[in-house]
Write a structure and sequence with these properties.
This protein is of the alpha/beta class. 39% of the residues lie in helices and 14% in strands. The protein has 11 helices and 12 strands. It is globular. It holds the Pfam family E1_dh.
Length: 368
């Protein structure tokens, strides 16, 4: 069953250095509607569980949640092909799940357990999956790496692309502009995606950037602005961007979105914005609720089907949370294993000068 879905029902695309942009209408099948809804709802539940684990002190270190931004990842993933790649910053629990890691693998990684996708050694910021080059803790550092992944795609000739994601808070990093320049010169199949959620930590975009039209900041690079709360609009924009970078050159895509939580779990998120602002977005722009209303109105699903799906997702995440709590931590000797992809003979440098550790390998640094 098909339904015409008008991406312009929320906000139209904005273009920079482009004569034509993505189509403003798209087809959504029942299977796609169910898949997108399930994926977004799973990410929402997954992040709720992650936040609870953090509050229970079972997650150590940083923990950045994606709640409110689900349509960004699900829309992009809906357009990606098997040979395409993605690299992002540190708000990546949802992306890790979308790229093939089970919710249990994500939650185990957060809790530092051996069943995690990086055997508990990566934590919130450093999760990996096939074609997913991870979260990266250094602000903006993943963008030139993404250009490098795009160079690898061009070198191999596999028609793949790389989506290099960064936030509005990282958009003023010099290395991002350097990556723009090199990608344009070498015509790399790289989509530079600015996930603009309005705040870089506690600084609003307007206070931190002289130009908040991030899709225009690639200079000669074309740019697209898309409503990141509309999953189908994001998919259409990403499909357009993939075609463009394969046939013309790199492009900048600004995905306008919003995060409900603070920057990280240690940030209540209320000192630089009001509770009323957050509540208004939840009521008027929530990506899951708005998509739910549209697919119900189009007759693609029934309310009973969605209710059953919600219950199943809750059950799955509850079980994954239970398993993450029960899973074992890795032993101390494993902390110095598989630091290098190629096993190094002899000792390796530890954290302190003069401290050396024996390096070994289990031949499975990640659980994939």
């Amino acid at each position: 069953k098909f339904a015409d879905y008008r991406s312009s029902s929320l906000q139209p695309f904005k273009l920079h250095n482009l004569k034509e942009g993505p189509p403003t209408t798209g087809k959504v099948t029942k299977d796609e509607a169910v898949k997108y809804y399930r994926q977004m709802q799973t990410i929402r539940r997954l992040e709720t569980s992650a936040g609870n684990l953090y509050k229970e002190k079972l997650v150590r270190g940083f923990c950045h949640l994606y709640s409110g931004q689900e349509a960004c990842a699900v829309g992009m993933k809906g357009a990606m092909r098997p040979q395409d790649n993605i690299i992002s910053a540190y708000r990546v629990h949802g992306w890790t799940y979308l790229m093939g890691v089970s919710p249990q693998g994500v939650l185990c990684e957060l809790a530092g357990k051996q069943g995690g996708c990086a055997r508990g050694k990566g934590g919130s910021m450093h999760m990996y999956a096939p074609n997913f080059y991870g979260g990266n803790g250094i602000v903006g550092a993943q963008v030139p790496l993404g250009a490098g992944v795009a160079l690898a795609c061009k070198y191999k000739g596999n028609e793949g692309v790389c989506l290099a994601l960064y936030g509005d808070g990282a958009a003023n990093q010099g290395q991002i502009f350097e990556a723009y320049n090199m990608a344009h010169l070498w015509k790399l199949p790289c989509i530079f995606v600015c996930e603009n959620n309005g705040y870089g930590m506690g600084t609003s975009a307007e206070r931190g950037s002289c130009n908040v039209n991030y899709y225009q900041r690639g200079d000669v690079l074309p740019g697209i602005w898309v409503d990141g709360m509309d999953v189908v609009a994001v998919r259409l924009a990403t499909e357009f961007a993939i075609n463009h970078v394969l046939n013309v050159g790199p492009v900048v895509m600004e995905v306008y979105t919003y995060r409900y939580s603070g920057h990280s779990m240690s940030d209540p998120g209320t000192s630089y914005r009001t509770r009323e602002e957050v509540q208004e977005v939840r009521q008027t722009r929530d990506p899951i609720s708005s998509f739910k209303d549209k697919i119900l109105a189009a007759g693609l699903v029934t309310a009973d089907e969605l209710k059953a799906m919600d219950n199943q997702i809750k059950k799955e995440i509850d079980e994954a949370t239970k398993q993450a709590k029960a899973d074992a931590e890795i032993g101390l000797p494993e902390l110095s294993t598989d630091v290098y992809s190629q096993n190094q003979e002899g000792p390796i440098r530890g954290c302190n000068p003069g401290s050396w550790l024996k390096h070994g390998t289990l031949n499975r640094a990640v659980n994939l």
